[in-house]
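Board notes (copied after class):
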Amino acid sequence: MLNNNVTEKKTKDNIVELHMKDPGFSVTEAFNTLRTNIMFSGENIKTVMVTSTNPAEGKSFIAMQLAKSFADINKKVVYIDCDLRKSVTLSRYKIRGKRAGLTEYITGQRSQLIYETNIPNLAVILSGHVVPNPIELMESKKFDDLLSVLRERFDYVIIDSTSNSYNDIFTHASLIITDYSSIAFDFAYLKKPVIYYQYSDDYNFDLSESYFDYKTMGFGEVIKKEDDLIKLIKDYLDNDCKMKEVYKKRVDEFYKYNDQNNSKRVYNWIYEN
């Protein structure tokens, strides 16, 4: 059973060799910059989840490279493969043999969970067998308890999540950072914080001709500089990611309805016309 007092004895059965390719200098430096920004976001930031709405968008690559970046500066890191539908970890990193993983642990079939790797300071938790209900497993109390233990034992916990629909991501997300994407309208409808990070003026449209003024009509702060973005993220985290009253008021003024009957209204309009 996994608990905070257990230290797995290293054997050939709980050590895996990761065959990682060098991504190149520029990519490595990009991940080092991301790592530094996460570290400066606050000491309480110990868990990072990487997800996407579609397969093959690169989330697994990003999660593993970020984990390695932390390990390279002697931070103790565990990478969790939570892509319980279509994991690529075994094939991409040429991990040999049958390996139990997260699904076997949560369902009570195995207690061994953490594998040491050939990369110093980096451990991995593999996905295990494919299951039809990954979201239910990740929302289980046993998974929450596991994360609590891992946060105590590791400096950082990097989660490679399964690809989710927008609905799943929006439901579980606490805050969104975007530039000009209309996705902010959907997220703001839930009255969760929105940050517009508009770091460049080099876009292929003229904001002065837009119907939507982000500073006076937007549902969150408009940020231009990276340092200001990091500070604002920290402020929201310290405030439990609650949308500010000024932006809640804008949401109420912008949306006429918030009663979960939008589909019904659309159907009735089509039927009547």
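Comment from the instructor: Residues 10 and 141 are 28 Å apart (CA to CA). Strands lie at 15-16, 47-50, 77-82, 115-117, 122-125, 156-161, 176-178, 194-197, 220-223.
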